[in-house]
Amino acid sequence: MSSSAPQHPRPEGGHRLWSVDEHLADVLGAVRPLEPIELQLLDAQGCVLVEDVTVPVALPPFDNSSMDGYAVRTADVQGASEEFPAVLTVVGDVAAGSGELPTVGPGEAARIMTGAPLPPGAEAVVPVEWTDGGTGGGAAAGMTPASAAPEQAGGEVRVHRAAEARAHVRARGSDVQAGDLALAAGTVLGPPQIALLAAIGRGTVRVRPRPRVVVLSTGSELVQPGEPLTAGAIYDSNSFALAAAARDAGAIAYRVGAVADDADTLRSTIEDQLIRADLLVTTGGVSVGAYDVVKEALSSVGSGMPSASAGSGEGDAEVDATRIDFRKLAMQPGKPQGFGTIGPDHTPLLALPGNPVSSYVSFELFVRPAIRALMGLPESQVRRPSVRAVLKADKALGSPAGRRQFLRGAYDAESGTVSPVGGSGSHLIAALAHADSLMVVPEDVTSVEPGTELEVVLLG
User: According to the model, what pLDDT value does residue 226 have?
Assistant: First the structure.
């Protein structure tokens, strides 16, 4: 079974009906990666590298010990055993960060700590557990701190086991060599990448910054969690869900408390938020109700974007300098959508429907890709990954003709199956909380029988 998305918007009740793919193409066509900046390492976490980083010095920069023990010459411990230990003269301590190093000559050893440079003359390290630790007794369990027993940096040590050359020695450049490629442009900087950059001495790095996404929900009926509900009111879940989703996508998210159904208030709020937004997301107020004020408010805020004909193949795009374009999409849930750019910097704005499931599905399909594109990620990492899975259900699933339906699902990678979670209602947020995927039913399919293979978008 395969999707058969239309190539052009088609009429529905006098309005053009856009496909999911066309709307997404319009969104991504208007989004450009943010300009690179130089950031301190920790500030660059989650950002995308814009340049190749090469290694200036080898890692490790010198031969060093991987164990606490004694640096020795292999000939001096050859044949050593508990019954016949090798007795060596201890010529000093070598701690991590040591500058001046003792030279290990024939019959000698140096007490050495993990990470400390291998002293001249030494060929291997014997762990302290293979020795008496300089006590003259049996096998040592560890070393006495140098401050407590400085005399143990001298005297004698009995070695109970032989060691091969280079035993317990980390070779210079065994991690990376000078001139090696440390990280390639396009790498997302997580903790291991930050560690590598620090290890090779980079204090700053050139990246595309994480996008700043402002999430704003509308509706006079919305109450903030933690406050008492009044008659006819509901808690605002959308702004929390979408702000969390924006963070999950890699953005810096700012959540604005619910704005009442007043066009002037909404307009003023949006204008105030432009200063800290690379992307604006509203939820609610995009349908055809008498109190759907997003359309009204945005009609005088927009600063210009291609009109609905852009990307449709129906002639040159016209520039509408006064409004965000509001559309109907051939999808369920999430039919009403708005998209445009606003303000002096032509900040992208996506206006999503207000039903919780509709807004979340719309975010995954359109907002998340926009965020990832702003980050400068390659096309292969812009959208959620998808797989093919077999429907596991008690009965056939219905789907409206001409709509691409996205149903909540639970995906089992081991069996290659997906099961529906909850119903298809766009208000069923509890089911969404237990889903890890979206089952995609193409526009030309109205019934999906158990055992049918479906496309499944993975949300985890």
Answer: 85
